[in-house]
Write a structure and sequence with these properties.
- The chain is α+β, with helices and mostly antiparallel strands.
- The protein folds into 2 domains: 36 residues; 99 residues, no CATH class.
- Helices cover 32% and strands 21% of the residues.
- The protein is built from 4 helices and 6 strands.
- The chain has a 6-stranded antiparallel beta sheet.
- The longest helix is centred in the first third of the chain and has 24 residues.
- It comes from Roseibium alexandrii (strain DSM 17067 / NCIMB 14079 / DFL-11) (Labrenzia alexandrii).
């Protein structure tokens, strides 16, 4: 039985070069990467084109407990005083209820007790954030729209209308 080199395949390839990767694509990729690195260095050194999220100092802070009972009523309670801040029936408080579901899921994955308080913060810029004190997550609520952020900002109000 003749060897593979006698079948004609290798003998036909003598003197030929294999197909190479197109140089234009390699050069284009190198130029694109160089531009990206240069743009990042330029932005970091000059501050042009860089978006920074500046919130300032906290204006109002309230630690709250958000619980759901068997009747699917979501209750927001001040963690320090135990006073009920607000209660949302089954068809009310959609964003507060949705946020609770998201945080409940994160706590379940992290295996953290559900009894730890959340921290609601109003910042100097007017931004409102909700932090989970148990897992360390913070969500800036303006990302979900002004009305949704206002739903949580209302929880910072005391009964007299003053900020804590």
């Amino acid at each position: 039985m003749p060897s593979v080199s006698h079948l004609g395949y290798f003998s036909d390839r003598k003197g030929r070069r294999g197909k190479q990767f197109p140089r234009r694509i390699l050069i284009g990729t190198a130029l694109l990467l160089s531009f990206a690195v240069a743009a990042v260095v330029f932005g970091q050194t000059t501050g042009i084109g860089v978006v920074k999220h500046q919130t300032g100092a906290p204006v109002a802070i309230r630690d709250i407990l958000i619980t759901r009972d068997a009747a699917d009523i979501v209750t927001v309670t001040d963690a320090r005083s135990g006073v009920v801040v607000s209660a949302f029936e089954k068809d009310n408080g959609g964003f507060v209820r949705g946020s609770l579901r998201a945080f409940e899921r994160m706590r379940m994955v992290a295996k953290v007790p559900a009894t730890a308080p959340y921290r609601l913060i109003q910042w100097e810029t007017g931004a409102v954030s909700l932090s989970d004190t148990a897992i360390g997550e913070r969500i800036y609520l303006e990302a979900f729209g002004k009305d949704n952020a206002a739903a949580f900002a209302a929880l910072l109000e005391t009964r007299e209308g003053a900020r804590k």
